Amino acid sequence: MWQLKKDGLSETTIRNYSNSLKRLVDDGAELSNPESVKAVLAFQEGWKNSTKLLMVASYQKYAILNGIRWNPPKYEVNRKLPFIPLEREIDELIACCGKKMSVILQLLKETAMRIGEALRLEWIDVDFERRIIILNNPEKHGNPRAFKMSEKLESMLNRLPRDSSKVFATSWRTSINNLSAQRKNAARKLGNPRLLRIHFHTLRHWKATMEYHRTKDILYVMKLLGHKSIANTLIYTQLVEFEGDEYSSAVASNVDEAKKLIEAGFEYICSHDETMLFRRRK
Predict the structure, then answer these.
(1) Distance between CA atoms of 106 and 149, rounded to whole angstroms?
(2) Secondary structure of residue 271 in the 3-state scheme
(3) Number of Cβ within a 10 Å radius of residue 126
(4) How far is 156 from 148, CA to CA, in rounded Å?
(5) Which of 77, 118, 178, 242 is the most buried (most CB within 10 A)?
(6) Integer distance in angstroms from the first to the last C-alpha of the chain?
(7) Which one is the CATH code of 87-237: 3.40.830.10, 1.10.443.10, 2.40.110.10, 3.50.50.60?
(8) Bridge-partner residues for 252, per DSSP?
């Protein structure tokens, strides 16, 4: 793991690789014997191919570092569209969680941060006067970015204790376990099992989907998420069909009128008889 850190891998990647190697050992693999590793992977029928691919990548790093030659098994993963909850369901979950967890979820909902990015936030990154949160330590080599926070999030943050330089002062594993327990209680209390499908990363998917649906601007969503490649952002153009897609329409007969409509959030549709047609979701 120290070698991975020296190689510049992110803390999240290092943690995932470490946990993968420990899991292989716990299931009977001898890391010095690549055939033993392949046998463990082959007999784990309950593991998804995505999990096995992570195991292979983790062991590959270990093998290279230790001069072990092996022929890694090949697994294919069929990419699935992520679950997108209703905003009402997210708000219900936030309302049912404890003080710190509710702030974490509200932050992720508004900013689309990754949970690791949120847990690294320090109080000096929060500008209460201008209601701005600065993310200077993005994961996965993403771009740094700044977010406007709502009055609600500002109020929630102000209720947290400031006995640490970090905003949340909690570990990734503890946060995962706390969300699991509080989510389970919320699903039972509200009688909605869909809440059990909401993870930290679900809120990133939700925010990106909503912003693309609102703006139809894939470059804006790419910037919001901090992606380096637009290919990673394009999935959000096809995630969900929305009910009640109702529009307000408007027309413009010249460039100035069209400019005002665009500034007001309307999108250009087409032109007819020298008149430009625009629409905006209600």
Answers:
(1) 10
(2) strand
(3) 17
(4) 14
(5) 118
(6) 51
(7) 1.10.443.10
(8) 276
Taking only the tens place, the pLDDT of each residue in 207-226 is 999 998 888 788 888 999 99
Tokens representing 23 are: 């899991």
> Is 61 in contact with 17 (CB distance < 8 Å)?
yes
Q: Where are the alpha helices (DSSP H) in the chain?
A: 2-6, 11-26, 34-43, 49-65, 87-96, 99-111, 115-119, 151-158, 172-190, 200-215, 218-225, 255-263
Q: What is the pTM of this model?
A: 0.71
What is the Cα–Cα distance from 259 to 29, expressed in whole angstroms?
Answer: 64
Q: For 228, phi and psi rounded to 5 degrees? A: -85, -30
Classify 278 as helix, strand or coil. strand
Tokens at 161, concatenated: 């204790």
Counting beta carbons within 10 angstroms of the beta carbon of residue 16, is it exposed (0 to 12), middle (13 to 18) or buried (19 or more)?
Answer: middle
Give residue-wise pLDDT tens across range 22-75.
Answer: 999 999 999 999 999 999 999 988 888 889 999 999 999 999 999 999 999 998
Domain with CATH 1.10.443.10 in the chain: 87-237
| Bridge partner list, 272 | 275
Helix or strand holding residue 249 (H, E): strand 247-252
